[in-house]
Each structure stands twice: as C-alpha cells, then as structure tokens.
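Methods, example record. To illustrate the input and output format used throughout this study, we show the complete record for Acetyl-CoA hydrolase. The sequence lines were provided to the predictor; the line carrying structure tokens was produced by it.
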Amino acid sequence: MFPVDLMYGFYTKDRPNDKLDVVVVEATDIMEDGSIVPGASVGATPELIQMANKIIIEVNTSLPSFEGLHDITMTELPPKRKPYLIMGVEDRI
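The corresponding predicted structure is encoded as:
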C-alpha cells in the first residue's frame, strides 16, 4: 500500500462514498487540543486520518513521547502539487 493510492481513491473506488469506514493509528500522546503525537512509524497515518469516517487511536505508553519530532505535511494532488523547497538538512517544511 502506498499512501498516495488512498488519496487517488484506489482503495475506495467501488464504494458509495470515498471514505474508509474505520482506521486505527498509533500515537504516543493526545494533546489538550485533540491533536495526536504520532509514534515512531508515522507511515500512512496522515492519509488514513484524512480518508476515515471513524478513527481509533491506540496510545502506546511504552514508547516515549515523540512530540516535535515529525514534520508532516499534506500535498495537493496533481496537477496542483508544488515542490518542497528543501535544500539542506536544517531546512523545515
């Protein structure tokens, strides 16, 4: 599975709507504003959350908090996609 396939509708093409019923994602913490701190393997979490009707969050308390570690951004689908302007290791999204 590639996360972009979710966004293109590959896994929901024969469904009456373009959403997944339920997804399960891992987090190391849930913040006061309702946002989550993903675990070590983010993988397709952003795409899964965007495509889900219902989300189950598994809080893994055996891992330390990864707050501030991940740079996550969602891109537009083609033809509106723009390049990331990352040129060095110190650059951020």
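Annotations derived from this record:
The chain has one domain: 1-93.
The longest helix spans residues 3-8.
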